[in-house]
Amino acid sequence: MKTLLGFCLLLGLANAALATGPDTLPYDSEEIHFTSGRFTIAGSLLTPRSPAPHPVIVFVWGSGPTNVKTLIERSQMLKRFLARGFAVLLYDKPGSGQSTGELDTRHLFAELAGILIDATTLLKQHHGIDPHAIGLYGSSQASYVMSVALARTRDVAFVIAWSCPMQNSVEQSAYLVRNYVLCDGGTEAQADSAQQAYRQRGRARSYADYRAAAEILDSMPAIRDGLGWAGVVPEEQFTAPDSMSERFLDPSATVASLEIPVLALFAENDRQIDPVQGAAAYRRILAGAKQELSTVVTIPGADHNMNLSPRGCMQDQRDGYRSIGGAVMSPVFLETVDEWLGRLKIYLGRS
Protein backbone atom coordinates (compact mmCIF):
# COMPACT_ATOMS: atom_id res chain seq x y z
CA MET A 1 0.00 0.00 0.00
CA LYS A 2 1.45 3.37 -1.00
CA THR A 3 -0.10 6.47 0.54
CA LEU A 4 2.04 9.23 2.02
CA LEU A 5 5.27 8.00 0.42
CA GLY A 6 3.72 7.73 -3.03
CA PHE A 7 2.17 11.17 -2.68
CA CYS A 8 5.53 12.64 -1.70
CA LEU A 9 7.36 11.08 -4.62
CA LEU A 10 4.89 12.48 -7.10
CA LEU A 11 4.92 15.90 -5.53
CA GLY A 12 8.66 15.80 -6.10
CA LEU A 13 8.02 16.54 -9.76
CA ALA A 14 7.68 20.16 -8.68
CA ASN A 15 11.43 20.30 -8.10
CA ALA A 16 11.88 20.40 -11.86
CA ALA A 17 10.01 23.69 -12.06
CA LEU A 18 13.09 25.69 -11.15
CA ALA A 19 15.56 23.74 -13.21
CA THR A 20 15.33 25.80 -16.40
CA GLY A 21 17.35 28.63 -17.84
CA PRO A 22 21.15 28.91 -18.16
CA ASP A 23 21.33 32.62 -17.28
CA THR A 24 24.43 33.65 -15.37
CA LEU A 25 24.91 36.33 -12.72
CA PRO A 26 28.04 37.18 -10.73
CA TYR A 27 27.79 35.87 -7.18
CA ASP A 28 29.92 34.24 -4.52
CA SER A 29 29.42 30.63 -3.48
CA GLU A 30 30.40 29.16 -0.12
CA GLU A 31 30.27 25.46 0.73
CA ILE A 32 28.10 24.83 3.77
CA HIS A 33 28.29 21.78 6.05
CA PHE A 34 26.38 21.24 9.28
CA THR A 35 25.14 18.45 11.50
CA SER A 36 21.45 18.02 12.24
CA GLY A 37 20.74 15.16 14.61
CA ARG A 38 21.98 12.00 12.93
CA PHE A 39 22.38 13.70 9.56
CA THR A 40 25.34 15.48 7.98
CA ILE A 41 24.11 18.14 5.57
CA ALA A 42 26.04 19.69 2.69
CA GLY A 43 25.05 22.57 0.48
CA SER A 44 25.92 25.99 -0.86
CA LEU A 45 25.32 29.55 0.29
CA LEU A 46 25.10 31.91 -2.68
CA THR A 47 25.58 35.60 -1.95
CA PRO A 48 25.19 38.57 -4.29
CA ARG A 49 28.14 40.89 -4.77
CA SER A 50 26.54 43.73 -2.87
CA PRO A 51 27.18 45.05 0.65
CA ALA A 52 26.49 42.58 3.46
CA PRO A 53 24.65 41.60 5.56
CA HIS A 54 22.17 40.11 3.11
CA PRO A 55 18.60 38.97 3.53
CA VAL A 56 18.53 35.27 2.72
CA ILE A 57 16.13 32.76 1.18
CA VAL A 58 16.34 29.12 2.27
CA PHE A 59 15.29 26.76 -0.52
CA VAL A 60 12.94 24.06 0.80
CA TRP A 61 12.70 21.12 -1.57
CA GLY A 62 9.68 19.18 -2.68
CA SER A 63 9.92 15.40 -2.36
CA GLY A 64 12.37 12.97 -3.89
CA PRO A 65 16.15 13.15 -4.41
CA THR A 66 17.83 16.55 -4.62
CA ASN A 67 20.67 18.02 -6.66
CA VAL A 68 21.93 21.42 -5.53
CA LYS A 69 24.57 21.63 -8.24
CA THR A 70 22.11 21.19 -11.11
CA LEU A 71 19.63 23.63 -9.59
CA ILE A 72 22.29 26.32 -9.23
CA GLU A 73 23.37 25.85 -12.83
CA ARG A 74 19.93 25.98 -14.38
CA SER A 75 17.47 27.87 -12.18
CA GLN A 76 15.94 31.09 -13.46
CA MET A 77 14.43 31.87 -10.07
CA LEU A 78 17.70 31.70 -8.15
CA LYS A 79 19.17 34.29 -10.47
CA ARG A 80 16.26 36.60 -9.71
CA PHE A 81 16.79 36.15 -5.98
CA LEU A 82 20.44 37.12 -6.32
CA ALA A 83 19.67 40.04 -8.65
CA ARG A 84 17.29 41.40 -5.99
CA GLY A 85 20.09 41.27 -3.41
CA PHE A 86 19.00 38.12 -1.57
CA ALA A 87 21.44 35.41 -0.59
CA VAL A 88 20.24 31.84 -1.13
CA LEU A 89 20.94 28.72 0.94
CA LEU A 90 20.50 25.38 -0.78
CA TYR A 91 21.35 22.02 0.73
CA ASP A 92 20.82 18.44 -0.34
CA LYS A 93 18.57 16.16 1.66
CA PRO A 94 20.09 13.22 3.52
CA GLY A 95 21.06 10.58 0.99
CA SER A 96 21.51 13.07 -1.88
CA GLY A 97 24.71 14.81 -2.98
CA GLN A 98 27.19 14.91 -0.11
CA SER A 99 24.50 14.88 2.59
CA THR A 100 24.44 11.65 4.55
CA GLY A 101 21.88 9.65 6.48
CA GLU A 102 18.55 8.02 5.72
CA LEU A 103 15.23 9.72 6.43
CA ASP A 104 12.52 7.88 8.35
CA THR A 105 9.42 7.92 6.14
CA ARG A 106 7.21 7.63 9.24
CA HIS A 107 8.53 10.97 10.51
CA LEU A 108 9.63 12.51 7.23
CA PHE A 109 8.21 16.00 7.71
CA ALA A 110 9.48 16.27 11.28
CA GLU A 111 13.01 15.22 10.32
CA LEU A 112 13.17 17.58 7.33
CA ALA A 113 11.77 20.39 9.48
CA GLY A 114 14.49 19.75 12.06
CA ILE A 115 17.14 20.11 9.38
CA LEU A 116 15.49 23.32 8.17
CA ILE A 117 15.49 24.80 11.67
CA ASP A 118 19.17 23.92 12.12
CA ALA A 119 19.89 25.59 8.78
CA THR A 120 18.24 28.83 9.90
CA THR A 121 20.21 28.70 13.18
CA LEU A 122 23.40 28.40 11.15
CA LEU A 123 22.43 31.40 9.02
CA LYS A 124 21.73 33.54 12.10
CA GLN A 125 25.37 33.10 13.08
CA HIS A 126 26.79 33.84 9.62
CA HIS A 127 28.58 37.21 9.35
CA GLY A 128 27.22 37.88 5.87
CA ILE A 129 23.56 37.27 6.69
CA ASP A 130 20.97 39.53 8.31
CA PRO A 131 19.62 37.32 11.13
CA HIS A 132 16.31 39.21 11.06
CA ALA A 133 15.70 38.64 7.33
CA ILE A 134 15.67 34.87 6.87
CA GLY A 135 12.92 33.57 4.59
CA LEU A 136 11.69 30.27 3.16
CA TYR A 137 10.91 29.39 -0.46
CA GLY A 138 9.28 26.02 -1.02
CA SER A 139 6.86 24.03 -3.11
CA SER A 140 4.73 20.93 -2.94
CA GLN A 141 5.85 18.65 -0.08
CA ALA A 142 7.67 21.66 1.36
CA SER A 143 4.27 22.88 2.54
CA TYR A 144 4.25 20.19 5.23
CA VAL A 145 7.93 20.62 6.10
CA MET A 146 7.65 24.40 6.42
CA SER A 147 4.46 24.01 8.45
CA VAL A 148 6.21 21.85 11.04
CA ALA A 149 9.26 24.13 11.12
CA LEU A 150 7.24 27.35 11.44
CA ALA A 151 5.38 25.92 14.41
CA ARG A 152 8.71 25.41 16.18
CA THR A 153 10.70 28.53 15.34
CA ARG A 154 10.23 32.31 15.20
CA ASP A 155 13.42 32.93 13.24
CA VAL A 156 11.65 33.10 9.85
CA ALA A 157 10.82 36.58 8.55
CA PHE A 158 8.87 35.71 5.37
CA VAL A 159 7.59 32.78 3.31
CA ILE A 160 7.13 32.17 -0.42
CA ALA A 161 4.96 29.08 -0.91
CA TRP A 162 4.17 27.89 -4.44
CA SER A 163 2.08 24.88 -5.44
CA CYS A 164 1.76 24.09 -1.75
CA PRO A 165 -1.14 21.91 -0.56
CA MET A 166 -3.41 23.24 2.14
CA GLN A 167 -4.96 19.88 3.02
CA ASN A 168 -3.61 16.75 4.64
CA SER A 169 -1.90 14.32 2.30
CA VAL A 170 -4.79 11.83 2.25
CA GLU A 171 -7.17 14.45 0.89
CA GLN A 172 -4.58 15.92 -1.42
CA SER A 173 -3.59 12.53 -2.81
CA ALA A 174 -7.26 11.77 -3.40
CA TYR A 175 -7.43 14.94 -5.51
CA LEU A 176 -4.35 13.81 -7.45
CA VAL A 177 -5.79 10.33 -8.00
CA ARG A 178 -9.01 11.75 -9.40
CA ASN A 179 -7.17 13.93 -11.89
CA TYR A 180 -4.78 11.18 -12.92
CA VAL A 181 -7.74 9.00 -13.90
CA LEU A 182 -9.28 11.85 -15.91
CA CYS A 183 -5.99 12.63 -17.63
CA ASP A 184 -5.67 8.95 -18.49
CA GLY A 185 -8.97 9.06 -20.35
CA GLY A 186 -11.26 7.90 -17.55
CA THR A 187 -14.82 9.14 -17.06
CA GLU A 188 -16.00 11.48 -14.33
CA ALA A 189 -17.70 8.53 -12.64
CA GLN A 190 -14.46 6.52 -12.65
CA ALA A 191 -12.51 9.49 -11.34
CA ASP A 192 -15.02 10.08 -8.55
CA SER A 193 -14.89 6.38 -7.63
CA ALA A 194 -11.09 6.45 -7.49
CA GLN A 195 -11.08 9.57 -5.33
CA GLN A 196 -13.58 8.16 -2.86
CA ALA A 197 -11.79 4.80 -2.72
CA TYR A 198 -8.48 6.50 -2.02
CA ARG A 199 -10.01 8.47 0.84
CA GLN A 200 -11.63 5.34 2.26
CA ARG A 201 -8.43 3.30 2.02
CA GLY A 202 -6.40 6.02 3.70
CA ARG A 203 -8.82 6.39 6.61
CA ALA A 204 -10.09 2.80 6.99
CA ARG A 205 -10.42 1.68 10.59
CA SER A 206 -11.34 -1.89 9.69
CA TYR A 207 -9.78 -4.35 7.27
CA ALA A 208 -13.13 -4.81 5.51
CA ASP A 209 -13.35 -1.09 4.70
CA TYR A 210 -9.71 -1.06 3.66
CA ARG A 211 -10.02 -4.09 1.39
CA ALA A 212 -13.17 -2.83 -0.34
CA ALA A 213 -11.45 0.44 -1.25
CA ALA A 214 -8.11 -1.16 -2.12
CA GLU A 215 -9.75 -3.58 -4.54
CA ILE A 216 -11.44 -0.70 -6.38
CA LEU A 217 -8.10 1.06 -6.84
CA ASP A 218 -6.37 -2.17 -7.82
CA SER A 219 -8.94 -2.71 -10.58
CA MET A 220 -8.07 0.62 -12.25
CA PRO A 221 -5.11 0.44 -14.67
CA ALA A 222 -4.41 4.16 -14.28
CA ILE A 223 -3.89 3.73 -10.53
CA ARG A 224 -2.39 0.24 -10.59
CA ASP A 225 -0.02 0.65 -13.54
CA GLY A 226 0.24 4.42 -14.00
CA LEU A 227 0.62 5.68 -10.44
CA GLY A 228 1.61 2.39 -8.84
CA TRP A 229 -0.65 3.20 -5.89
CA ALA A 230 -2.66 -0.03 -5.87
CA GLY A 231 -2.25 -3.47 -4.31
CA VAL A 232 -4.09 -5.16 -1.46
CA VAL A 233 -2.20 -6.15 1.68
CA PRO A 234 -3.30 -9.27 3.59
CA GLU A 235 -5.25 -8.79 6.79
CA GLU A 236 -2.33 -9.72 9.03
CA GLN A 237 -0.36 -6.80 7.57
CA PHE A 238 -3.13 -4.24 7.85
CA THR A 239 -2.79 -1.47 10.42
CA ALA A 240 -5.44 1.15 11.04
CA PRO A 241 -4.09 4.66 10.45
CA ASP A 242 -2.96 6.79 13.36
CA SER A 243 -4.93 10.04 13.34
CA MET A 244 -1.82 11.80 14.70
CA SER A 245 0.46 10.58 11.92
CA GLU A 246 1.97 12.90 9.34
CA ARG A 247 -0.46 11.81 6.66
CA PHE A 248 -3.13 13.84 8.48
CA LEU A 249 -1.03 16.97 8.97
CA ASP A 250 -2.92 20.08 7.77
CA PRO A 251 -0.58 23.00 6.95
CA SER A 252 -3.38 25.56 7.30
CA ALA A 253 -3.24 25.34 11.09
CA THR A 254 0.29 26.76 11.13
CA VAL A 255 -0.35 29.31 8.39
CA ALA A 256 -3.20 30.74 10.46
CA SER A 257 -0.76 31.62 13.25
CA LEU A 258 1.78 33.44 11.06
CA GLU A 259 2.32 37.18 11.45
CA ILE A 260 4.97 37.51 8.73
CA PRO A 261 4.69 38.35 5.01
CA VAL A 262 3.52 35.39 2.93
CA LEU A 263 3.39 35.05 -0.84
CA ALA A 264 1.24 32.06 -1.80
CA LEU A 265 1.13 31.08 -5.47
CA PHE A 266 -1.12 28.48 -7.04
CA ALA A 267 -1.16 27.16 -10.61
CA GLU A 268 -4.47 27.34 -12.44
CA ASN A 269 -4.01 23.92 -14.07
CA ASP A 270 -2.46 22.09 -11.13
CA ARG A 271 -3.68 18.48 -11.15
CA GLN A 272 -1.56 17.36 -8.18
CA ILE A 273 -2.56 19.77 -5.45
CA ASP A 274 -5.92 21.52 -5.38
CA PRO A 275 -5.25 25.15 -6.37
CA VAL A 276 -8.83 26.31 -5.80
CA GLN A 277 -9.05 24.90 -2.28
CA GLY A 278 -5.49 26.02 -1.48
CA ALA A 279 -5.93 29.59 -2.67
CA ALA A 280 -9.27 29.89 -0.88
CA ALA A 281 -7.73 28.60 2.35
CA TYR A 282 -4.88 31.10 2.17
CA ARG A 283 -7.21 33.98 1.34
CA ARG A 284 -9.51 33.10 4.22
CA ILE A 285 -6.59 32.91 6.65
CA LEU A 286 -4.80 36.01 5.41
CA ALA A 287 -7.97 38.11 5.23
CA GLY A 288 -7.69 38.82 8.93
CA ALA A 289 -3.92 39.19 8.98
CA LYS A 290 -2.33 42.48 9.89
CA GLN A 291 0.47 41.92 7.37
CA GLU A 292 -0.48 43.91 4.25
CA LEU A 293 2.34 42.46 2.14
CA SER A 294 0.82 38.96 2.28
CA THR A 295 -0.62 38.02 -1.11
CA VAL A 296 -2.32 35.07 -2.81
CA VAL A 297 -1.91 34.76 -6.57
CA THR A 298 -3.20 32.19 -9.08
CA ILE A 299 -0.90 31.77 -12.08
CA PRO A 300 -2.91 31.33 -15.32
CA GLY A 301 -2.21 28.41 -17.65
CA ALA A 302 0.42 26.80 -15.42
CA ASP A 303 0.71 23.29 -14.01
CA HIS A 304 2.05 22.04 -10.67
CA ASN A 305 5.62 22.81 -11.79
CA MET A 306 4.63 26.36 -12.83
CA ASN A 307 5.27 25.38 -16.44
CA LEU A 308 2.77 26.42 -19.09
CA SER A 309 0.52 23.42 -19.69
CA PRO A 310 -3.03 23.45 -21.12
CA ARG A 311 -4.00 20.16 -19.42
CA GLY A 312 -1.69 20.30 -16.43
CA CYS A 313 -1.54 16.50 -16.39
CA MET A 314 1.22 14.51 -14.74
CA GLN A 315 1.34 12.35 -17.85
CA ASP A 316 2.53 15.42 -19.81
CA GLN A 317 5.26 16.09 -17.24
CA ARG A 318 6.51 12.52 -17.46
CA ASP A 319 6.60 12.91 -21.23
CA GLY A 320 8.92 15.90 -20.81
CA TYR A 321 6.21 18.20 -22.19
CA ARG A 322 7.09 16.99 -25.69
CA SER A 323 3.44 16.88 -26.70
CA ILE A 324 3.15 20.64 -26.13
CA GLY A 325 6.53 21.69 -27.51
CA GLY A 326 8.66 21.46 -24.37
CA ALA A 327 8.70 22.88 -20.86
CA VAL A 328 8.29 26.64 -20.57
CA MET A 329 8.12 28.22 -17.14
CA SER A 330 5.32 30.73 -16.73
CA PRO A 331 6.70 34.26 -17.10
CA VAL A 332 3.83 35.45 -14.88
CA PHE A 333 5.14 33.22 -12.09
CA LEU A 334 8.68 34.55 -12.43
CA GLU A 335 7.57 38.17 -12.64
CA THR A 336 5.14 37.86 -9.72
CA VAL A 337 7.81 36.52 -7.38
CA ASP A 338 10.33 39.08 -8.61
CA GLU A 339 7.96 42.02 -8.07
CA TRP A 340 7.00 40.79 -4.60
CA LEU A 341 10.66 40.50 -3.62
CA GLY A 342 11.13 44.15 -4.57
CA ARG A 343 8.34 45.17 -2.18
CA LEU A 344 9.65 42.78 0.45
CA LYS A 345 13.05 44.49 0.44
CA ILE A 346 11.38 47.79 1.21
CA TYR A 347 9.48 46.12 4.05
CA LEU A 348 12.73 44.68 5.38
CA GLY A 349 14.20 48.18 5.35
CA ARG A 350 16.44 47.78 2.35
CA SER A 351 16.68 49.78 -0.86
Account of the 3D structure:
The chain has 351 residues and is of the alpha/beta class. The chain has 2 domains: 7-167 and 249-346, 3-Layer(aba) Sandwich (Rossmann fold), CATH 3.40.50; 169-237, no CATH class. 39% of the residues lie in helices and 17% in strands. It has helices at residues 4-11, 68-74, 76-83, 108-124, 142-150, 169-183, 188-203, 207-218, 221-227, 252-255, 275-286, 314-318, 331-347, and strands spanning 27-36, 39-48, 54-60, 87-91, 129-139, 158-162, 262-267, 295-299.
Structural class: alpha/beta
Strand line-up of the largest beta sheet:
1-2-4-3-5-6-7-8
Q: What integer is the average pLDDT?
A: 91
Q: How many strands?
A: 8
Order of helices and strands: HEEEHHEHEHEHHHHHEHEHH
Salient structural properties:
13 helices, 2 domains, disordered N terminus, 351 residues, alpha/beta, globular, 17% strand, 8 strands, eight-stranded mixed sheet, Rossmann fold
